[in-house]
Write a structure and sequence with these properties.
This protein is mostly beta strands. 7% of the residues lie in helices and 42% in strands. The strands form 2 sheets. Strands 1, 2, 3, 4, 5, 6, 7, 8, 9, 10 and 11 form an 11-stranded antiparallel β-sheet that branches.
């Protein structure tokens, strides 16, 4: 004897739904990957770590700042006065650089794990064919508080070396008293400069760490109203030139550029003596 049951239309629909759910949960007829379901999706892939880190704000800036630059292009092979421009973009918290008379501002992106090393990225997102090592001082630095240094390089070849910072306004340079300025590159003291703001007399020595020789300054001139306030000769070669500019409030820092027998860039703080 065959027994037949009639299900109401609503019961048929309910049974169809239950069977469909069972098939999905067991992987039947579906395209779900093994071990996944609509209720247990596969985990999203881990994000790729960025190769860049946030750049520390230099000199406590809270607004955009175009820096005063003193340095050398084509350094150290054939050094000439630098045409590099450097500025701080406060909105994006990045340095921006112009090089070689270009009208384009490229962005410096600080590398993860690098020691103050930056990629240079053009407005289209492509990498420039050089990188930058850059260090801005902080208030506790022995080498100045309102100056920094930057070197441009391609692999192991140096291309340029600059000092940068917030230049001292002509009206903020002292008119009396004496300052002693200690000079160094990013990690080594290189010399000392004494400036008498009352008489305009400048004296001092440069070296010996980089060049192996201590050079006394001679024939120094002091023009506080000029962007490059001090010029002097040094050593024995007729083409040797020493130049210096003040940075920070009340001429608290100094940066120098040397060409000729020795070439390079140094910075340092100036204190009353």
């Amino acid at each position: 004897m065959t027994v037949q049951f009639r299900l109401p239309a609503a019961s048929k629909a309910t049974l169809a739904i239950l069977l469909g759910a069972a098939l999905v949960s067991c992987g039947g007829e579906g395209n779900s990957a093994p071990g996944t379901s609509v209720n247990n999706p596969a985990p999203a892939p881990a994000p790729t770590p960025s190769q860049y880190v946030s750049t520390p704000v230099p000199f406590g800036l809270t607004a955009d700042q175009t820096f005063d630059v003193l340095g050398l292009d084509d350094w150290p092979a054939n050094p000439v006065n630098s045409q590099i421009n450097l500025r701080w973009n406060n909105a994006s918290k990045t340095y921006e650089i112009q090089r070689g008379g270009s009208a384009t501002w490229n962005v410096l992106r600080q590398l993860v794990g690098g020691t103050n090393e930056f990629d240079v990225v053009d407005p289209g997102g492509a990498l420039a064919p050089y990188q930058v090592w850059l260090l801005a001082r902080n208030p506790a630095s022995l080498f100045g508080r309102y100056t920094g240094e930057a070197r441009l390089f391609d692999g192991t070849t140096d291309l340029a070396y600059i000092a940068f910072g917030i230049g001292t306004a002509a009206g903020d340079i002292p008119t009396s008293g004496t300052r002693t300025c200690r000079l160094g590159d990013y990690d080594t003291i290189e010399g000392e400069l004494t400036i008498n703001f009352t008489t305009g007399k400048v004296s001092g020595t440069i070296g010996p760490y980089i060049w192996g020789t201590t050079y006394p300054l001679t024939d120094a001139t002091f023009k506080p109203s000029d962007a490059v306030s001090i010029t002097a000769a040094y050593g024995e070669d007729a083409g040797n030139l020493f130049e210096a500019a003040f940075y920070g409030p009340d001429a608290s820092d100094i940066a120098i550029r040397m060409t000729g027998e020795a070439s390079g860039v140094l910075t340092g703080p100036c204190t009353a003596s």
